[in-house]
Specification:
The chain has about 375 residues and is an alpha/beta fold. The chain is built from 15 helices and 14 strands. It has 2 domains: about 160 residues, DHBP synthase (Alpha-Beta Complex), CATH 3.90.870.10; about 150 residues, Rossmann fold (3-Layer(aba) Sandwich). The chain has a 7-stranded mixed β-sheet, with helices on both faces. A 7-stranded mixed β-sheet has the order 8-9-10-12-11-13-14, with helices on both faces.
Length: about 375
């Protein structure tokens, strides 16, 4: 018996909304249909969400005739961390897997899991095709471990095939365009005066993308004069450091230090970006901490999980600044990538203002990695 609800609503297309709904489906353990006019059709399931029950439903949708085409897509960094043959560079890798189990998927996807990939001959691998790469990118957007079980399909009409099974179908091009489209759709949704301990003249402006995704915040201190360069800090949210005062990083110091520095300057803006863990999300950041406790540094841990060392994008920050009327900034940062990326997004960086803090007895190795592997000015 299928575990699909009898009255499950039929999804309808919607570009940004389409991708956002697909992310929700994948996080719940439901498959989605991904199609491309050149590369065909794939049924996609997030490896992390593949319980035995969800996996059985996924395979029933695919049908027995698709058994020979089943596979697992991993990112290049994850495949290299596993030592798989054929893994090179950043390009995703496809593993042949005619039989799939939730345990096997977890073992390949999650380096913190107790289970490990089975010993013996390695599965055959090859570079992932464009559509397969889009599948793992979609899972990555869902802030899940970047690994996807896939089965190629051959329906004449992918939309009709998906609709008949109450599954969401979307084009690979929608996935590729999602980050840019989401950032450009940001709009102000709320604004309020919020006096802070180090900046009493302060207001917070909330921005939300059109698909209803994660909000980003602008903390506007004083009355910035936008006819010239504005003192600005780009700060990626860090639940553990900002809120809990974690000593594993310097994020809390950077946040509070930036607010105090902007206030002392007289005016400026701190953008609080929803990009936890360098863009991999809080759950995956905690997994990275587990790997760091086993000996990896913060750069190596992200790669072992299958992510890039830094997954952040800065187009949302540029869009927020434009809507605040700011085209030139003096950037409070020790990260050269922020300077380069913000300028690439059309915001003139007229000056880089140093912004670093001493080690605390727990984060020396973390700060050393930022300097040595990420090129931070510390």
């Amino acid at each position: 018996m299928s575990d699909l609800p009898a009255q499950r609503p039929t999804p309808t297309p919607g570009t940004l909304e389409d991708v956002d709904r697909a992310l929700s489906e994948l996080r719940r353990g439901w498959p989605v249909v991904l199609h491309d006019s050149d590369d065909g059709v794939l049924l996609v399931l997030a490896a992390e969400a593949a319980s035995e029950e969800r996996l059985r439903s996924f395979l029933r949708h695919a049908g027995p005739e698709a058994a020979a085409g089943r596979g697992l897509i991993l990112t290049g960094p994850r495949a290299q961390a596993l030592g798989l043959s054929g893994a090179a560079g950043d390009r995703p890798v496809r593993l042949e897997a005619e039989t799939l189990s939730a345990g096997t998927l977890a073992a390949y996807a999650d380096p913190t899991a107790i289970a490990r990939p089975v010993s013996g001959p390695q599965p055959a691998t090859r570079a992932a095709a464009a559509l397969e790469a889009a599948a793992v990118d979609l899972v990555k957007l869902a802030r899940l471990l970047p690994a996807a079980a896939v089965v190629p399909l051959t329906p004449e009409d992918p939309l009709a095939w998906a609709r008949a099974r109450a599954l969401l179908s979307l084009a690979a091009g929608e996935v590729a365009a999602y980050r840019t489209a989401s950032a450009r759709s940001l709009g102000k949704v709320a604004e309020a005066r919020v006096p802070l301990a180090d900046a009493e003249d302060c207001r917070i402006v909330a921005f939300r993308p059109a698909d209803g995704g994660l909000e980003h915040l602008a903390i506007v201190i004083g009355r910035p004069e936008t006819s010239g360069p504005v003192l600005v800090r780009l700060h990626s949210e860090c639940f553990t450091g900002d809120l809990l005062g974690s000593l594993r990083c310097d994020c809390g110091d950077q946040l509070r230090g930036a607010i105090a520095a902007i206030s002392a300057h007289g005016a400026g803006v701190l953008l609080y970006l929803a990009q936890e863990g360098r863009g991999i999300g809080l759950v995956n950041k905690l997994r990275a901490y587990t790997l760091q406790d086993r000996g990896a540094d913060t750069h190596e841990a992200n790669l072992a999980l299958g992510f890039d060392a830094d997954e952040r994008v800065y187009l949302p920050a540029a869009e927020m600044l434009r809507q605040l009327g700011i085209g030139q900034v003096r950037l409070l940062t020790n990260n050269p990538e922020k300077v380069e990326q913000l300028a690439r997004c059309g915001i003139a960086v007229t000056d880089r203002v140093a912004h670093s803090f001493p080690a605390n007895g727990h984060n020396e190795a973390y700060l050393a990695t930022k300097a040595e592997k990420f090129g931070h000015w510390l």
